[in-house]
């Protein structure tokens, strides 16, 4: 194997050559404390940066086995190292010429602790995957600057960020303990009969719509749950923690505008993930299958059984296997609910501000004016109780305008001046004192046999131009799959662009491996991909070591696949 001196010699030799000369450095180089891998060299200083890796032997890295022995601790350690390495890259980057010259970068994690492909840990080594903009003036190699950047600048960066003895031990252990405690909390929810838990003292408001860090200042109100919903749970590191338990069943979050209803729901949406120390939501946890539901006008729907909510359309469309290129608000929301249930959601999160009113409720006056025979929609208020009792699916709904849900709720929480109050008894009394006069719209039992959907591989085409597979991400807005743009902008529980990149690759993995006559329906396909990535890690998504993938849930993979406008499914019946 070549070493650091060889790399320096090659870079000096190509100084002043045309930019393609950088291809000479592809390969691996032994440094004193690590090995550098140059996996891909950019073809142009303005192109996507070159892909590099550094691998530090575990005896040099020095991380005790207990730090990475469990899955949650290993995820948290990798996340911590990614943050440290990304910060160091940002500090070390320097503009050294044209285009991206001098760039050193790794994706910067947000407030969530997530599995990332940017850091890999094995018993024998720790590896960081990052990108570098190889220096150039115009399209001429700046070899000496590149040698200073890689041969002189990289070793201290690696030592500072990938060696245990050089890291802030207090911050590192806090990171691991915080993730481990949150994971333990979430695992206790089923036994405690809870859909979610919010610890006392949590800080839920965020700084802005584009800044997910906790709001600060004297006006911030720490969360404190009502005594009637108080739960204490045991954590492996912090001991016992108290807070508000949201029971399974139907929970309403009510209150006036600007009193914190949607802020609480937003925290519950993100409660499917662990959070960094100091985020304020470290001990806000939600059932890991919880899915945020909303209306989504204009989305495509392919073969979804929407009969629980919509039947007898005036154009005689088949609602048992419903298809449309341009869904309405109510139809899209119905499909979103049923697609979430299809892949195992046990908790549905809804905010009336982003829902279709006619799928949520039909009041008595509207029932009187438009008889049921002329209305194909059965509103959620008449299905949510059945859904909870039949399938054990809980609902947490933010409501400010409809008290009709009082009749079907198990728990009612009022947010008042950012503090929760248990007003269940009062809500039930109001329901008795002021009956709405609306009739339950009985559309029959929830279909005993659901229509199963089997995605067809030949409806997915990743080709674009001369490329057999072209998959990219566009921030948190879209997956670019071949020539198709999959709109994921309404998937509220996507939090990192790396998840969008990974989902694009996961769709391709699903097409190649699990839609090939294996007899897997939609749920089977997405869970097969999840099992593959759980067993092999995010490297299962690519045949190259790529550092910008972030773990995703089966629910968001299914949601993206369902929004691919070329998707076709065949139908079958199942229990």
Describe this structure in words.
- With 575 residues, the protein is α+β, with helices and mostly antiparallel strands.
- The chain has three domains: 2-167, no CATH class; 191-290 and 346-448, 3-Layer(aba) Sandwich (Rossmann fold), CATH 3.40.50; 452-574, no CATH class.
- It has 15 helices and 30 strands.
- The strands form nine sheets. Strands 1, 2, 3, 4, 5, 7 and 8 form a seven-stranded mixed beta sheet that branches.
- The mean pLDDT is 95.
List keywords for this structure.
3 domains, 7-stranded mixed beta sheet, globular, 575 residues, alpha+beta, single chain, Rossmann fold
Dominant shape: globular
Number of DSSP strand runs: 30
CATH third-tier fold name of the largest domain: Rossmann fold
CATH class of the largest domain: Alpha Beta
Structural category is alpha+beta
Mean pLDDT: 95
What is the count of DSSP helices, taking H or I runs of 4+ residues?
A: 15
Percent helix among the residues?
25-40%
Strand content: 15-25%
Largest sheet: 7 strands, mixed
| Secondary-structure arrangement, i.e. CATH architecture of the largest domain | 3-Layer(aba) Sandwich
The count of domains is 3
